[in-house]
Amino acid sequence: MTNSCQHNSFNLPQEHLLHRLHTLQREYLHISPQAMQQVAAEFNLPLSQVAGVVAFYSFFSTQPCGRFHILFSNCTSCGYLPDGQNLMQLLAQQLQVNPGKTRTDGLISIGETSCIGLCDQGASLLVNGIPLTHLNPDKIAQIAQQITANISTDEWPAEWFEIHDTIHQRNLLLTTAQPAPGSTLQQAITHGAAETLTTIQQSGLNGRGGAGFNTGKKWQLCREAPGDAHYVICNADEGEPGTFKDRVLLRHHAETLFEGMTLCAFVIGANKGLVYLRGEYRYLLSHLQAVLTQRRNRGLLGRHILNHADFHFDIDIVVGAGAYICGEESALIESLEGKSGIPRIRPPFPVTHGYLGQPTVVNNVETLIAAAHIVAYGSSWFNSVGTQKSRGTKILSVSGDCRLPGIYEYPFGVHIQQILDDCGAQKVQAVQIGGPAGKLIGAPDFNHTISFEDISTGGSFLIFGHQRDLLTVHRNFAHFFAHESCGFCTPCRIGTQLLKNNLDKIAEAHSTANDIETLKQLAFLIQHHSHCGLGHTAANHILDGLQHFPQVFTTHLNQNFVAQFDLDQALESARQITRRDDAAAHLD
Amino acid sequence: MSAIQNTIRIDNQEIPFTPGQTIMDAALAAKVYIPHLCHYPGLPPSGNCRLCVVEIGNRSVAACTTPAAADQAICSNTPELNQARKALTQMLFVEGDHICPSCEKTGNCKLQAMAYYLGMLDDHFPQFYQRREIDASHPDILLDRKRCILCDLCVRASREVDGKNVFAIAGRGTQAHLIVNSPSGKLADSPLAKTDLATTICPVGAILIKQRGYQVPIGKRIYDQHTIRETTMQEHIPSCDKLKHKGHQDTER
Ligand SMILES: Cc1cc2nc3c(=O)[nH]c(=O)nc-3n(C[C@H](O)[C@H](O)[C@H](O)COP(=O)(O)O)c2cc1C
Ligand code: SF4
Ligand code: SF4
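Above: inputs. Below: predicted complex with iron/sulfur cluster.
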């Protein structure tokens, strides 16, 4: 195993299973049973593993997609339902296609997908994997024309694909010059791995991906863990709806990210690093590859980094294929190993048993960039900012109902109200901090702060103005979790589906007070009995909502019993089969 | 073997354990019952059904995957946890189509037995009515995915004991379903035999042996005579000592 990894880093890497399947999907617009058999033979894997992977990841399909394959984001910020319009329906009507079904001539298929991380760019979609932003009914009509005329996306107006990154607030990481390529590695070599680790430890840096584990501690545990090889992995899965700061960091600070990964490698003794890039960000791949090549040419990756006798390290990028759960570190590692993204049993943790069973550091993009800055500018430069328990700054992705969506970097301890003022948010009803998995708060809590000891976030900051129907927001989140649950454990697999159905039922005014009790029961069960963090957090928004905005759930309730079973609706499939729609085919 | 006596406490009962054992291992060895559906002694644990979740302080953990550690104070047989177990069992009932009165497994089914044990009187949650494929291609074995609770036991049994790797679970969320590792995806095309552990271990009526209907009359079946708590204590895969020598690194989950 170890030898083959060494081999991977320094010779031609063996193709990753997800990449092979992506190529097939792109070429043949689906993955056929024959193709799966062929891949299983090529990779010497059981057919069931290949079939399992194809079924697990959203971006693979067993039925042919259209030559134009369009995926609308369904996030509350970059989704297809801005201001009461339904842009997906609009495009589907104009192209005479049903969402989820490929048009019979094979030209077009339209579907929806979880947040694509373009929340500061207006309603957005991916067409054959390429993002198209700032959608409105006019643009939808023009897109329909291009597709009808079968014009290749290469020839669509270039400005449709533009992404304007706006950084509204800069602090430590975004004002200070990025460390010169190789400069922190030189320092690390001069001072040695142990002292470099001490610098990270003294900085008080905690992970920026959500869980907030102390980074110095993580590196130390991994460094001390025995193994045939050590690995450093950058978590660039950024799947939490409303988060897009890693997208901006990957576009503008990839050099510093790779510097941070290389530093980590030096400290823990890794020869190989991996970036797990979410499939939704595939368009960033060529840029990232170019930066890697540049670093190899400068002697900052590869063998004998900066002419050091035994500092060898290289980085591969693996692109995901549409699965939020793969942001969870052990699911991510499973995915890197070419499997479905089912979270592992922990302990053992990745620091001792990670990629290929070896000691592995998994860090968020922002964490690794911060680490490089800390080595460049010192631990006190970093830890003099922030609060006692939350050192440094946090980069937030602000979106939703505000005038200035975009990137905001603040010292930890910043008040929620301050952020709302800075981004021009008025008449704010609620803020969802940390994405659907995070915390929902209303105006009385806007004096709270962003920090690990108060309200913590991986970066998502979703603002809901007074005109928003919060029940719609809850339904959106519940649909998200039901869609993204990996399906491994009972409470999350079935419970998230039941939560979703329950909220839909409330919205359709078919509920009674009893359904609120069921909501609470389900929420508790999912929170306490699930296997991983997805389940532990999936019902947070509902519990917060019931606490802070109970009327959102109760205004739709019925006083009297209503059957949850709509008899007439149940006859619908029978009507379709028999092609009847006369009065006798309906009840009353 | 060191002579140090390591113990944990489950519901205030002192229980010895040896390092490397999970809470479930230690409990079963001491004949303490923690309800479960996806665990079978001798197979690597999975932790998917979540019925065995117990409380250690304010932490909720699955007994079958959590290592026993000295002086753990564990709560298991509490009204709250048994209520949660009942709700999880109800969830499994509504997810599939559990046609108990007409199922050949009735009386021998662990899901049903668990429902009895936990005092479950109704489904509580609305039925899902999912469409899932039946595979009747095999001459001796029927696979009805609508009765499958995705416990992964057949998957592990086939891989670890039968050495055939016939089954896998594919798909995400409620789309998750059992698949057969054969070119056509059909059982007839697989090496599965009716004597395989993978065939016989299924706790519910998802994998059934054909031509054997109602040999034991209803009323005389396992859980007509015993509770699931009683039968669980007898369970063990005979060849399990052999298994211990095989590395289980990649089956950690
Ligand atoms: C469902 C789920 C999704 C996650 N998604 C991400 C993600 O997209 N990016 C990320 O950095 N961490 C994510 N995490 C947290 C990771 O498991 C892990 O804690 C993190 O990558 C560690 O890096 P850090 O210490 O630098 O924060 C997720 C966790 C869960 C439970
Ligand atoms: S909690 Fe949800 S996502 Fe996590 S293992 Fe269970 S089913 Fe999968
Ligand atoms: S077929 Fe039976 S043993 Fe296999 S996963 Fe389903 S319920 Fe478990």
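Residues 1-13 of chain A have pLDDT under 50 and may be disordered.
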